[in-house]
Amino acid sequence: MDVRPDRDDAEQPHSVNDPWQSGWETIPPPPPEHASPESPGQSGGPPSRHLASYVPYIAEQRAAQQTQEAMNTPYPSYPPYGQTDGPASPHNAPAGRKNAAGCASGAAVLAVLSKVAVVGKVLLPFLSAVASLAAYALLFGWQFGLGILALLFVHEMGHYIVIRAKGLPASWPVFIPLLGAYVAMRRMPVNVRDEAEIAIAGPFAGALASAACLWLYQVTGITVLLPLSYFSFFINLVNLIPVSPLDGGRIVGAISRWIWPVGLVLMGAAFFYTHSILLLVLLWLGFLETVRRFRIMATGDPYYKIPLLARAYVTVFYFGLAAALAIGMFAAEGLMVAQASPSLFGN
Question: Where do the structural domains in the chain lie, given as residue ranges?
């Protein structure tokens, strides 16, 4: 029921003050409870009493209209994460280009470094082998120098093969002119038994190579093979001295820690008779390593706890290999004395 007062729309046009019209579109007429008769003396437009009662109704209708509009309005579609529909800000564009350029430069540097590292893994062992060959050849002739290099390579490959067999990363053999060679083990083994097996693999491979040289000399009569055999027997035997960083120092950790002090005494005696700076350096390094390991073992580190049978097997292997190397060295020395000649070194 429309309770608005009768009026002529043509004579009285709607105004902004007309409560029946607003910026919210047309508001429906009020229900009867909000309607009231005109007050006397008023002409046109709703009475003041009626306006007072109609204000709450306008608010209710507007709230209902907003709720309906919100329900009918679909949710906006958002772009995927990390994307925007609007144009990029001109202030962010230079920063984005700089970040992209920085990432590209960093990736390029990493790619170059990775290639250098790969090349270095191959190039360093090769160049060190060439330098060692040149040094040995200059002192003993190219035949003996080449033989020393081959024997050192066999020794280090014994370490390398066992390290890789145990699933540990290792580098290729790197040669140090006039000092020997080494294989870098990138991670420590699980226990002292594994460490002992890795360490003893080098002298064992060297003993086989020494025996092969001695046998080939007896078969072929090539004179340079005899001093090579003696040299290899001797070097591998010295390497079994129980002083770190020699192989023997790593082996006896699986036997008994009290062998390390014995090795230090032997190394000290050798230095007393030879006055070799190299032996002095080994003696000092061995002393520091012995002190460090004694402290670790005093804490009950499980790294050094292996079964008794494993200790027995390492003990037999270690002393048996040392005896075999000593026998081979004396045998080669005897043949060298019997056939002493300037041509032994292949000059």
Answer: 1-73, 132-345
